[in-house]
Amino acid sequence: MSRKGASQLLVEDPVAAIVEAKREDIIGGIAQCLAGMLAAQIFNRAAGRLEEVVYGAVTSGSEWRFMRLDGTTVVVDSDEYSISQLGKIIGILTQTLAVA
Q1: Could you report the per-residue pLDDT of 3-37, keeping only the tens digit for each?
Q2: Residue 88: pLDDT above 90?
Q3: Rounded-to-integer distance, Cα 76 and Cα 70, Å
Q4: What whole-number distance in Å separates Cα of residue 93 and Cα of residue 67?
Q5: Each residue's pLDDT tens digit, 37-69
Q6: Which long-range contacts (CB under 8 A, 24 or more apart) does 85-89 make?
Q7: Is-contact 66 87, C-beta < 8 A?
Q8: 3-state secondary structure labels for all residues of the chain
Q9: What is the reported pLDDT for 92?
């Protein structure tokens, strides 16, 4: 993101999605995250990015689950990561941002 004006932010590609799960419901947040990932995919395409992969994460703050949207295929990580695994969570986020 960059500043466009005093009170406006300009979103720049590539866009990813991170969603806060309501009521600590990671599974319930997956659909919301997927909706954000689809929107990010549309935004990235409109910006001229040919790569269709979009990464997403659902978090309750203490638990994390990661997702990947590749074209029309969604992969949800079967592992749920606890905040006690902070190094692993940061590693996944860092690797994801390096790929995007």
Answers
A1: 555 667 777 766 777 888 877 788 889 999 999 99
A2: yes
A3: 11
A4: 11
A5: 999 899 888 888 877 889 999 999 899 999 999
A6: 89/64
A7: no
A8: CEECCCCCEECCCCCCEEEECHHHCHHHHHHHHHHHHHHHHHHHHHCCCCCCEEEEEEECCCEEEEEEEECCEEEECCCCEEHHHHHHHHHHHHHHHHHC
A9: 92
Rg of the chain over CA atoms, in angstroms? Answer: 14
The pLDDT of residue 13 is 65
| Whether 90 contacts 59, CB under 8 Å | no
Hunting for tokens 């419901």 — which residue is that? Answer: 25
Paired tokens of 98: 């390096």
| pLDDT at residue 97, rounded to an integer | 75
CA pair distance 5, 53, nearest whole angstrom: 30
- Number of residues that make up the chain: 100
- What token pair was written down for 27? 């599974």
Name the token pair of 88: 């692993």
